[in-house]
Design brief:
Blueprint lengths: L9 E6 L5 H4 L9 E7 L3 H8 L6 E3 L2 H7 L5 E4 L6 H10 L3 E4 L7 H14 L3 E3 L7 H12 L5 E13 L6 H12 L4 H18 L2 E8 L2 E4 L2 E3 L3 E7 L4 E13 L7 E9 L2 E5 L12 E5 L2 E5 L6 H18 L8 H19 L11
Parallel strand pairs: 1-2, 1-4, 2-3, 4-5, 5-6, 7-12
Antiparallel strand pairs: 7-13, 8-11, 9-10, 11-12, 13-14, 14-15, 15-16
The structure holds nicotinamide-adenine-dinucleotide.
Nicotinamide-adenine-dinucleotide binds next to α7.
């Protein structure tokens, strides 16, 4: 599509005012690229709560009410429960609004195609935001790898531990749609949070030619299963192999301002290694990035390693993009389909007993 950047602040609306709004809205605060004109959520309580952030914005119980109001909107931040993504995005694009959607995009390729078709039919942009690509320690990790400081990359691994204690409160209503997702075979660790890890793999080392996976499950309450232990390995087209292990530590307390997720990324090269020690939670209390080469360890003490800053910067990137049209969207809808294919290859491999699956053939 041809896109003409806005020569004035973008008029934006938030669609969905739940848990993640708290982090997403940071991109919009004190940002001359945008004017928040509307807030949409069926919950009256949420609308009243969020109105305090944007006293000048109008509130609506549905996107249809906003569209019918005649209020001019250019772009929306779609913060909807995952099961509503397809229907919601098609509707929002249909009103002529550009959409910045939360991950995971949707559960299958048919749904993704519906979204792509709606964007094309309406001549509007669909972005699937990926805040991890804006987390400063990960950006510095990528820069370190690309600088050659580690020598040629031999391989890398990611680790994720879902812990059951600590962090912020998640509303019970969020768990309702998460259970629905789990019952559809799209678990909270591999697919929902995992989307980010798969995205970082593609962003760091490019397309993948083969995935092998063993997706497990653990019942943590009646009818409530978590998709761990899980192990996933893959090989990029450039020959670099990655491995990601997901474990559950249900009784472990993890200090976190957000979700209780203990994460690491470690890239090994011929001369050394670089490791991001944490992201969402405050697990390992070392500097967030450490780089070892030639007998010396370099530790980065002053990176912005607050996970919330990655939301701020991802959102600012989107709004700046709407003002300039320059650079990558990180991610465009088409790139997000690449992440979805990776996830689908994980499931296909695991169901087939761990055999190798090419995501492009899904
Ligand atoms: N990037 C990340 O790291 C990250 C973290 C958490 C959640 N998310 C994503 O953000 C999205 C929302 O998650 P959440 O945790 O905020 O969920 P939530 O359940 O806390 O909030 C969802 C909100 O949407 C509202 N809603 C429901 N139907 C609606 C409709 N038709 N129109 C407008 N609003 C509607 C609900 O009333 C609720 O306030 C999901 O896609 C989730 O995967 C991303």
């Amino acid at each position: 599509m041809s896109f003409t950047p806005y020569d004035r602040p973008v008029r934006a609306a938030f669609i969905g005012l739940g848990r993640i709004y708290d982090l997403n809205m940071r991109a919009y605060l004190d940002n001359p690229d945008v004017e928040v004109v509307a807030l949409v959520d069926p919950s009256e309580e949420r609308r009243a709560q969020r109105q305090a952030d944007w006293p000048g914005a109008r509130t609506f119980a549905s996107a249809a009410d906003l569209a019918a109001s005649g209020l001019e909107v250019d772009a929306v931040e779609a913060l909807l429960p995952i099961p509503l993504h397809i229907e919601g995005v098609v509707e929002l694009l249909g009103y002529g609004w550009h959409v910045n959607l939360q991950k995971p995009m949707c559960n299958d390729l048919t749904g993704a195609q519906q979204m792509l078709d709606a964007a094309e039919a309406n001549g509007r942009l669909l972005r699937v935001m990926e805040n991890y690509l804006f987390y400063e320690p990960l950006r510095k990790l990528k820069e370190t790898v690309e600088s050659g400081a580690l020598g040629d990359v031999s391989g890398y691994h990611m680790k994720m531990v879902g812990s059951g204690r600590g962090g912020w409160d998640v509303p019970a209503s969020s768990y309702e749609w998460q259970v629905q997702q789990m019952r559809s075979g799209r678990g909270i660790l591999v697919f929902d949070d995992g989307w980010h890890k798969l995205a970082t793999a593609l962003w760091l080392f490019g397309p993948i030619r083969e995935v092998r996976a063993w997706v497990g499950r653990t019942e943590v309450g009646p009818g409530f299963e978590i998709d761990a232990p899980t192990t996933i390995v893959w090989e990029h087209h450039n020959g670099i192999r990655g491995v990601w292990d997901i474990t559950l530590a249900i009784d472990m307390y993890l200090r976190s301002d957000y979700y209780t997720n203990d994460e690491r990324w470690e890239v090994t090269g011929r001369r050394g290694y670089a490791r991001v020690n944490r992201c969402t939670g405050r697990g390992i209390q070392q500097p967030s990035l450490e780089v070892y080469a030639d007998g010396e360890m370099r530790a980065y003490h002053a990176l912005d390693d607050d996970w919330a800053s990655s939301f701020r910067d991802s959102g600012r990137h989107w709004l700046r993009w709407l003002r300039t049209g320059e650079g990558s969207l990180l991610w465009s809808a088409e790139e997000a389909v690449g992440v979805l294919r990776f996830a689908l290859a994980v499931y296909a491999s695991s169901s087939a007993g761990g055999t190798g699956v090419d995501p492009a053939l899904i």
